[in-house]
Amino acid sequence: MHLCCRFLLFLQAFSLLASQIQGQETQTTEEDVKIEVTFVPSECEPKSKKGDLVNAHYDGYLAHNMSKFFCSRSEKDGHPKWFVLGVGQVIKGLDIALLNMCRGEKRKVVIPPSLAYGDKGYDKIPPNATLIFEIELLGIGRGPRSVEAFQQMDLDNDMQLSRDEISHYLTEEFRKDGKKRDPSVHGLILKDIFEKNDHDGNGLISPKEYNVYKHDEL
Ligand SMILES: [Ca+2]
Ligand SMILES: [Ca+2]
């Protein structure tokens, strides 16, 4: 993936996700996503899980007339979509539909309106529309809130992220993406990260404050 996208995802994860994740886990729904696995590669490990950064192609259809409303292969120069799984970057139904999937696996899924665009609809999608997606998972990576990302930043392995450690990480990411930036940006981002994540104000970000996904043992 392009480095700037990865970096943006990282920042987005730092600033946005905590409340969304908690909100989602308390919600229940009576309707389910119907999943039909249409292709499984002979090697089907590892499987995708919440918090992974996934790369997928998917085509979306309106169930009532099978008209196509979205095609990742023809939009945005045909680049597959990157997103963090299970945290609300896509509709809830897709967050569910792409779980436990391996690279190369294909699925056809039926998503009820309650897990898609509900009674309001969106753009080409009318109110109360059931959606069908054909999905191909192309890649699974460690998400920005993974244990690995935390450990990568935690240079002295004390299970806390200090200002220096995050600053170092930002410097590395900036260097990798190679864009010219005003030097003040670095400080502003760092300030923002601590304001939004250092809830007890001790100048360190703990695994809990960082909100490492619950499935990962730390
Ligand atoms: Ca540390
Ligand atoms: Ca703290």
From TrEMBL:
Entries under Pfam families matching the protein: EF-hand_5, FKBP_C
Coiled coil: none
UniProt entry tagged with the keyword Amino-acid biosynthesis: no
GO CC annotations on file: endoplasmic reticulum
SUPFAM superfamilies, per the entry: EF-hand, FKBP-like
Gene3D superfamilies referenced in this protein's UniProt entry, alphabetically: 3.10.50.40, EF-hand (1.10.238.10)
The keyword Cell division is assigned to this record: no
Catalytic activity: [protein]-peptidylproline (omega=180) = [protein]-peptidylproline (omega=0)
Residues covered by the PPIase FKBP-type domain: 51-141
Residues covered by the EF-hand domain: 148-176, 185-218
Protein keywords: Calcium, Endoplasmic reticulum, Glycoprotein, Isomerase, Metal-binding, Repeat, Rotamase, Signal
MF GO annotations: calcium ion binding; peptidyl-prolyl cis-trans isomerase activity
EC code: 5.2.1.8
Signal peptide span: 1-23
Enzyme class per UniProt: isomerase
Superkingdom as given in the UniProt entry: Eukaryota
Stated name of the protein: peptidylprolyl isomerase
Source organism per UniProt: Leptobrachium leishanense (Leishan spiny toad)
Originating gene: FKBP7
